[in-house]
Specification:
With about 240 residues, the chain is an alpha+beta fold. The protein folds into three domains: about 50 residues, no CATH class; about 80 residues, Alpha Horseshoe (Serine Threonine Protein Phosphatase 5, Tetratricopeptide repeat); about 80 residues, Serine Threonine Protein Phosphatase 5, Tetratricopeptide repeat (Alpha Horseshoe). It contains ten helices and four strands; from the N terminus they run ββββαααααααααα.
């Protein structure tokens, strides 16, 4: 489950569904949000607008019916390394603490908890993924890139980590590498809109690839306000 600001699509909180389907989101300010249900590749399965307030009843989310396309359709992929090295309880507790701190905007403190989780369980791929995000938020782009690469090394490539990697690479002006990472994310999931956003923003910088970039931004604009802003800025030059 991912909770985002309704207008900016900035991620506010993230929670994993338990075996019984329940989930818990903590310390979210009362206001309107977009709630996205995602799969293991961070692909959106469904989304809805929700209003969070102190008196609200338990929130219930119903997934749409999905057609089966053969055995294993939609199954999550877990690497052998992850199966051999599941995170210890103390690492999971530190990870959960980091999520609460991140939800409160305490990104440096969240990074500290994730570093603790990784010291306890070095093969904790999701902790590396989230640490990459916290490092990015605090301007530590080289370290963010390294954490995304480490998560990919442990769990294999997926659109979310490849897109995080591309974003950090772009902030370091390593645009050729960022383009390669974003394209790799789209090869895994052509409908991953954040990768379209990242790739589109890179390609529109060069006149020769601007047309390709606009197409990616138009796809991303369905979900991301920043993509729509990019397109508005480009209108005079198109």
């Amino acid at each position: 489950m991912v909770v985002e600001e309704g207008s900016t699509h900035t991620e506010i909180s993230r929670a994993e569904a338990r075996i019984d389907g329940s989930f818990e989101l903590r310390e979210i300010p009362a206001r309107n949000y977009t709630l996205r249900v995602t799969d293991s590749s961070d692909r959106t399965l469904c989304q809805q607008f929700v209003t969070i307030d102190r008196q609200m009843p338990p929130l219930e989310v119903r997934l749409p019916e999905r057609e089966s396309h053969g055995a294993g359709a939609g199954a999550a992929t877990v690497s052998a390394k992850q199966l051999m090295h599941p995170p210890q309880k103390k690492a999971v507790h530190a990870f959960e603490s980091a999520l609460r701190l991140s939800s409160a905007g305490k990104y440096a403190d969240a990074a500290g908890e994730l570093e603790k989780a990784i010291r306890i369980s070095p093969e904790f791929a999701e902790a590396h993924t989230n640490l990459a995000v916290q490092y990015f938020r605090t301007g530590r782009f080289e370290e963010s890139m390294a954490e995304s690469e480490r998560s990919i090394q442990i769990g294999g490539p997926n659109p979310r980590n490849l897109c995080n990697l591309a974003t950090a690479q772009a902030r370091l002006n390593r645009f050729a590498e960022a383009e390669k990472s974003a394209r790799a994310a789209l090869r895994l999931d052509s409908g991953y809109l954040k990768a379209n956003l990242v790739l589109g923003s890179i390609l529109t910088d060069e006149p020769v690839t601007r047309g390709q970039g606009v197409k990616h931004l138009e796809k991303a604009a369905v979900e991301f306000a920043s993509a729509r802003q990019f397109l508005e800025q480009l209108r005079p030059s198109r």
